[in-house]
Amino acid sequence: MDFNDSPEEAEFRAEARAFLGQHLDAKASGRPSRDESYMKRAKEWQNIKAENRFAQITWPEAMGGRGGTPMQQVIWNQEEGKFDAPTAPFAIGLGMCVPTVIAFGSDEHKERYVKRALHGEEIWCQLFSEPSAGSDVAGLKTKAVRDGDDWIVNGQKVWTTGAQFSDYGILLTRTDPDVPKHKGLTMFIVDMKQEGVEVRPIHQASGGREFNEVYFTDVRIPDSDRLGEPGEGWKVAIVTLMNERLAVGGSPGPDWSEIMDYARDAGTLSDSAFRAKLADWYVAAQGYKLTKFRTQTALSRGETPGPENSIGKIITANHLQDICNSAIEMQDHYGIINDGDKAPTDAIFQQSFMWAPGLRIAGGTDEILKNIIAERVLGLPQDVRVDKDKAFSEL
Amino acid sequence: MNFDFSDDQKFLRDEARKFLTAQCTTAEVREVLDDDDKSHHEGVWKQIVDMGWLGTAIPDEHGGLGLGMLELCVIAEELGRALAPVPFASTAYFFAEALKLAGSDEQKTALLPKVADGSVIGCIAASEGPGAVDASKLKTTFADGKLSGTKVPVTDGDVATHAVVLAKDGNGASLLIVDLTNDGVSRTSLSTIEPTRSHAEINFDGAAAELLGNSGDGESLYNEIMNRAAVLLAFEQLGGAGRCLVMATEYAKERHAFGRPIGGNQAIKHKLADMYVKNEVGRSNAYYGAWALSTGAAELPEAAAAARLAASEAYWFASKENIQTHGGMGFTWEVDCHLFYRRAKLLAVQAGAPAQWKEKLVHALEMKNAA
């Protein structure tokens, strides 16, 4: 056992680090800096990565990737994470949407969309969730009706990350309500800048407005922009979603070391009840971090990682909520203050406290993730699905 | 990144599992459970001795196989999975490791070959009553080569030939080695919640003993021995917890209620998913402990504590919810669930209960931060 790179990995890491150092500053604090120039910087950085084949390292060279290994992508992400790298606008498009276009699109689609997305010229979003279709996304209602060579789309999507910046989206619609819900869906590429597409930011419980509602009113999509056959949209969506949970599972905020530092400064580190909780947080955080090392070991050996990776978001989301809750309670009444100038540690615990409930839902709720472990890892029976064989229109 | 066992180590694990699956079933475990006169399963023990497992981490020059701690970890996981009713942990994790850590050349030369060939069964005797072992409040004393006092409970204390004893002497706490066949040693078997592992109260009345390590170093040596044993016990715990998850999952698929398998209900599914998550957190932390143990890393104190805490929690949760998943059947003597529930609790307290390991962990993190 060791935590060292293989010689090839070390060589790639050195190359990545040198390249990053030429183009970016080291990260000043925990998160990349966000300012008015963020989007411009993000597009420039994406282009530089693509020009040098550091964007989408596992994609084949013909698609503009490096033809590299998953382990190289892990190493790149680790190294890029140490720099002030503006990457957020492209995570969903390049991680989920464009791979779907590559898998199901025509040669014309690949020619038209892939290179521009890879070079940061165009941004993509994913349009699946609806107000009445969250965990049960196949129950969605947005309708696409065939009209000559086009489809006419009406309906509403919700929780769409980055819709306000996006040029294109992949859109899951219902095209046949007279068959069971999973069988009547069809996927399209949609131009987000066209008439009839309206993006409205959601005012989240956390106070921020990162996500959106997207309304479609008589939006016309040519049949040539369909991905997969009519009625095969669920299969297409599965390919898109396979990548999502890995994308959401990262370390999301203050952890045991931050609350330990705070407790030391506040003079409460000697409290025995706090110390017992701190030990639990350390064990959980290590469990998450070291499980990723096990996954990386499999990747490094060219093996398929085991299912242990699936524990990540269940641990991290609850963990964050618990730590923030305890930090606020340690501050007693003063803990309600979320003004960064007055609250300890720039109000990082208060901010994450309000963000944590969303993290437990985004990208699969705790409950859905536990169902997935129970069914796919342990092989337990599926939940009862009373609507499984009924036509959607009869539900 | 190479955070996994090697192919050779996995082969050893597979061989150990094959042997134990065939030769150490719960029928063998129950022979010890149901017979108050049996301290351990002699047939299983003899075969384990013959295969040389006790010498796994003992160097060649002392009669061992000269493999390493990682090899001992994979064997530990399989012994835990099989609920092996033998004095392996007492002898290999506590007694032999104490000798390797603190023994003089003479002591190692005299005793390690006998550990490896099975002629010495070891144990460690520290507890004197309810509550965590406190080296500053020991009642057992050592003076002029003689040991006096009572240790209770001592795992495998009735079957062991030798003990490492924590006692007070003129310089504070010290570790002693005692031949338990000496005059002045008397032992009484104890009734415990885990009868597949034997326990004794040992009374020392001026028994001859010799120092293990320097006089006055007892507390730090004892802590070091516990750090090592914690990692090895974590693997035993993982083995047991893993088997509980398999048992509960299989039963939940077979057992029908209200017209379908109970494993189709989210109350069961989510419980078993929680079990899976805890087991994986335990496994990852145990691997880190194994790394620290095998490399002699400075991170051993926090790695051992985290391994022990994660594995104790995983086994506790898995063993109690395995009974719960089995319903009334799980509360019968005939169904094996209670065997794991018993073993889980023994392993969680045997090298110190979770509360003191939480404190050790936070203390280690503070030391690291201060350094």
Q: Keywords for this structure?
A:
heterodimer; A: about 400 residues; Butyryl-CoA Dehydrogenase, subunit A, domain 2; Butyryl-CoA Dehydrogenase, subunit A, domain 3; 3 domains; four-stranded mixed beta sheet; four-stranded antiparallel beta sheet; 8 strands; about 40% helix; globular; B: about 375 residues; alpha+beta; about 55% helix
Span from first to last CA of chain A?
55 Å
Number of domains of chain B: 3
Under CATH at level 1, the class of the largest domain in chain B stands as Mainly Alpha
Percent helix of chain A, as a range, is 40-55%
Reported for the largest beta sheet of chain B, the result is: 4 strands, mixed
Can you give the mean pLDDT of chain A? 93
Total individual domains of chain A: 3
Distance between the termini of chain B: 27 Å
Total number of helices of chain B: 11
Helices, strands, pairings?
The complex is a heterodimer of chains A (395) and B (371).
Chain A lengths: L6 H17 L14 H14 L18 H11 L10 H14 L2 H12 L5 E4 L15 E5 L2 E12 L6 E7 L10 E7 L5 E5 L9 E12 L3 E2 L5 H9 L2 H5 L7 H11 L5 H29 L11 H19 L17 H12 L6 H12 L18
Parallel strand pairs in A: 1-4
Antiparallel strand pairs in A: 2-3, 3-7, 4-5, 5-8, 6-7
Helix pairs in contact in A: 1-3, 4-5, 4-6, 8-9, 8-10, 9-10, 10-11
Chain B lengths: L6 H17 L2 H8 L8 H9 L18 H13 L6 H15 L2 H12 L5 E4 L15 E3 L2 E10 L6 E8 L2 E8 L5 E5 L9 E10 L1 E3 L5 H37 L1 E2 L2 E2 L4 H30 L4 H27 L10 H14 L3 H17 L1
Parallel strand pairs in B: 1-4
Antiparallel strand pairs in B: 2-3, 3-7, 4-5, 5-8, 6-7, 9-10
